[in-house]
Write a structure and sequence with these properties.
By secondary structure, the protein is an alpha+beta fold. It contains four helices and nine strands, in the order ααβαβββββββαβ. Strands 1, 4, 5 and 6 form a four-stranded antiparallel beta sheet that branches.
């Protein structure tokens, strides 16, 4: 078949032309999937944990303590951070879909039906440790609340300044931050 006949099949809005175009598009998509597709697995094997939630909270407490201690009037301080949840990991996924179509004829009447089904799989990459799911992003653990105990916490102005500072630093509302006066002579 020469090129003119191929182009005529694609340009004509006939049933044969449409089926031919869909088939050609399917072949192209399969070819592209072969170029870009990696191996896929049903469930991700989570890689070695990057930073535990406890370590993240401890580092955050230390940073907040250093920051709050620099606020005029705060004095010596201690900070406790509680976490709402641990880190979240978002992995690259691929989706396989299949469509089943059926046609039935009843007294010269046609009815068609189709059923689509899909399956989500995780894209794997090869590493020294073996196959690992492709990590797109890691979302930091969410802070649930913060308690600040400091020698200047009894002063309303200092306490408000500490609350605003902590709220800005960890992106939580001020009603999730408690500032109290305490004896930190130890």
């Amino acid at each position: 078949m020469d090129c003119k006949k191929w182009l005529a099949l694609i340009k004509k809005p006939t049933k044969t032309g449409i089926l031919f175009a869909i088939g050609l598009a399917g072949i192209l998509l399969i070819g592209l999937a072969g170029l870009f597709g990696g191996r896929q697995a049903e469930k991700p094997e989570i890689a070695a944990s990057r930073v535990s939630t406890e370590d993240y909270a401890a580092a955050l407490e230390e940073k907040l303590q250093n920051t709050v201690a620099r606020i005029r009037g705060a004095g010596r301080c201690s900070v406790m951070v509680t976490m709402e949840q641990g880190a979240e990991y978002v992995y690259a996924t691929g989706e396989k879909t299949s469509v089943d179509t059926s046609q039935t004829s009843e007294d010269s009447r046609f009815s068609t039906g189709s059923r689509a089904s899909g399956e989500e799989t995780y894209i794997l990459i090869s590493t020294k440790e073996g196959d690992q799911p492709l990590l797109l992003t890691e979302l930091a653990p969410r802070v649930k609340g913060v308690v600040v105990v400091c020698s200047g916490g009894g002063d309303a102005v200092v306490a408000d300044t500490i609350k605003r500072t902590v709220a800005t630093a960890v992106d939580v509302s001020m009603n999730r931050i408690c500032v109290v006066e305490g004896n930190l002579t130890q």
